[in-house]
Amino acid sequence: MRNELRVGLTMREVPAKGYDEPRDALARVWGTFMQAAVPEAAWLPIPNLGPDSAPLFCDRWGINALILTGGEDIGASPARDATERALLQQFLRNDRPILGVCRGLQLIWTELGGEIESKPGHIVVRHHIRYATEASLDIKDGTREVNSFHGLSLRESTDALRGPVIVFARADDGSPEGVRFGTGRMAGVMWHPEREEAASTADISVIRRLFGLEEAPGEYRRVSR
Asked: What is the mean pLDDT of residues 85-94?
């Protein structure tokens, strides 16, 4: 079991109508996306158990790759913030692959000393990104359209960041939207690959290469909700 790819996905905190009982949730589209992008991997949602119990949960289930998912601004859920920060540090210490999606990339950025700032015009819209050839991700230079659901963006003052950073994708306005950290075991994107009707092969390729897998298995179409 420990030699298999076992991916843990963090969850957002949601209120339960009629109950004083916070609950954790993961959008169903993640299941479809994971099956299409990494069909050979086992994956498991990680509850917001806090900084002590969440790392133990990952150890017990043999989770060896991490996806910090989107949804909620940092600070909206203290339980989630504490859980994800502890998991990020655990996976960094163990040199295990980490992917941040939207909020997840923001969390990585701030944990490494960076800052985030308001970004008007990026909430519930679509815009173009341009890939950079110097990103060393085997993605051809070019543009594509992506979804955008974030009101916050990365403030690009890399002097404050700990470790090397490569921006491999930028939005029309120049803001960083795809980032690779360190030696390549950690990366993040500001768009949501799991929310696209037809996933980009570039998104799947980034994830598979980050997780040490062979070439992407191809495009998929999301199941209607």
From this structure: 97
